[in-house]
């Protein structure tokens, strides 16, 4: 597409399919998973958000499962230890391809408004001696975990509010970039000096010439558009936490260079934008040539749903992560997984994996308003639950309540069907 071409017209379903294609969720994986394909999936999303809640699986593992299918979860730690990916603050705490490290580093000064980086700067400034001593300790003795330091206050460990001093200092040094995560042991961060981590990862880095901050932001804008497939301007900044809403003046250079182009989406009162690399994909979408055949359970922190406004506009799916909501105020449950079914978000389920017992418990399942539990949906959702349960090593599926009421009984039959 060029500036002189007439804009493409997409209906809302075509826009959804373009978004899912860009995210790697349009069709089932065509090849067996490999560590290289795992890294490629992260690169396609640009970021893989980290969260530690694991009543089902920790979010990064589940997000990859939705795109790769059943894979050994330890691959994620392996590619991190090899230096093929690294950890950074971007959308939130995320894994990102090591090839993008220099770009993240170049944008770091502009990202200092991020709450985590502001907090890191405050802790570093207010505990200069202690953090200097901790850096010297790591330099002399090698990589460390927070677990290597005993609590001195006699308190039990808890959430972030209960972190021991060394954990806060390690996180601050990670936030300032002086330490990096060298690997994870049982999902615990192992921190080492930045220069030692990068020396090991040098073969995976892509060196970049020093670039002006505005040019770096332009690349992040373009990458956000590419990751989203099609997006309104108001959704761009959230992807990499670029600050305030992206303005027409910031989009103009990208449009002039042809890096992105506008499209019209039925029902949107503002233009959509598509990356030039997706021009052929967008044209196929506009001709009705994209077909969604993939169904899967999604993580609550999947890019498809992490922007509530975007999920509502694209899918008509009003999604809130309720694990941080007091139990009496929850509508759906603690760890609710969106159900992707052939191009739509058809429902959600509250699940828990009982690994010792080998049981995958679906406490409750809900279909969206207007979604009919026909045979195709029952087969797709049952298969999605079976695959997820099998990947967890919890092959016995237990189904609780449902909305509509008869759905659970029908699903039970479909889940145990050979």
TrEMBL record:
One Pfam family of this chain: AlkZ-like
Domain of life: Bacteria
Keywords: DNA-binding
Presence of the UniProt keyword DNA-binding in the record: yes
GO molecular function per UniProt: DNA binding
Protein name per the record: Winged helix DNA-binding domain-containing protein
Organism per entry: Tahibacter harae
């Amino acid at each position: 597409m060029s500036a002189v071409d007439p804009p493409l017209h997409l209906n809302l379903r075509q826009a959804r399919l373009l978004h899912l294609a860009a995210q790697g969720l349009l069709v089932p994986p065509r090849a067996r998973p490999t560590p290289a394909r795992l890294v490629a999936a992260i690169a396609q999303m640009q970021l893989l958000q980290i969260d530690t809640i694991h009543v089902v699986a920790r979010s990064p593992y589940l997000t990859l499962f939705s795109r790769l299918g059943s894979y050994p979860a330890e691959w994620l730690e392996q590619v991190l230890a090899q230096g093929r990916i690294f950890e950074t603050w971007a959308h939130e705490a995320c894994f990102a391809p090591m090839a993008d490290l220099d770009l993240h580093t170049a944008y770091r000064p502009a990202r200092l408004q991020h709450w985590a980086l502001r907090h890191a700067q405050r802790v570093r400034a207010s505990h200069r001696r202690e953090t200097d001593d901790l850096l010297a300790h790591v330099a002399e003795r090698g990589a460390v975990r927070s677990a290597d330091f005993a609590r001195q206050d006699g308190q039990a460990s808890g959430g972030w509010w209960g972190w021991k001093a060394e954990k806060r200092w390690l996180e601050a040094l990670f936030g300032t970039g002086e330490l990096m995560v060298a690997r994870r042991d049982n999902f615990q961060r192992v921190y080492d000096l930045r220069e030692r981590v990068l020396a090991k990862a040098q073969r995976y880095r892509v060196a970049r010439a020093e670039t002006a901050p505005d040019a770096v932001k332009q690349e992040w804008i373009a990458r956000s558009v590419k990751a989203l497939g099609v997006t309104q301007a108001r959704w761009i900044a959230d992807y990499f936490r670029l600050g305030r809403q992206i303005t027409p003046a910031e989009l103009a250079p990208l449009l002039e260079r042809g890096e992105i182009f506008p499209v019209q989406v039925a029902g949107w009162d503002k233009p959509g934008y598509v990356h030039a690399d997706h021009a052929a994909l967008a044209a196929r979408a506009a001709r009705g040539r994209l077909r969604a055949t993939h169904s899967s359970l999604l993580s609550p922190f999947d890019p498809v749903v992490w922007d509530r406004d975007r999920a509502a506009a694209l899918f008509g799916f009003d999604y809130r992560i309720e694990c941080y909501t007091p139990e009496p105020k929850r509508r759906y449950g603690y760890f609710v997984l969106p159900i992707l079914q052939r191009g739509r978000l058809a429902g959600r389920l509250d699940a828990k994996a009982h690994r010792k017992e080998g049981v995958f418990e679906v406490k409750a399942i809900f279909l969206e308003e207007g979604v009919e539990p026909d045979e195709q949906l029952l087969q797709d959702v049952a298969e999605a639950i079976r695959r997820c349960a099998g990947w967890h090593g919890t092959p016995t599926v237990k189904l609780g309540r449902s909305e509509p009421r008869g759905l659970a009984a029908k699903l039970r039959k479909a889940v145990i069907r050979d």
